[in-house]
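Hello Y.,

Per our agreement to keep a running log of every chain we model this quarter, I'm adding this entry. I've kept the format consistent with earlier entries: sequence first, then predicted structure.
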Amino acid sequence: MPEDKKMLVSLDRIEEGIAVLVTGDGHMWLLPAENLPEGSREGDVLDVILRKNPEETEKLAGRVHDLQRQLLDRTRERDETPGQ
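Predicted structure for the entry above:
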């Protein structure tokens, strides 16, 4: 199984319900503050763990495929409609 990737970010501030996180190399991430761990405050250092989720990837691929098929069907129907 692939190894999870872990990184540290600091909670710089929360403005209008948006958390501003700063990575070690200075990149800023924005996310809804409701996604922060309970009790998080400005200056806190947070662990971020990244791991692949094959099940959700497969679900998303299926939804995208279904949408592409619907669009193709609509295009074919439009092209086959007389008088257009």
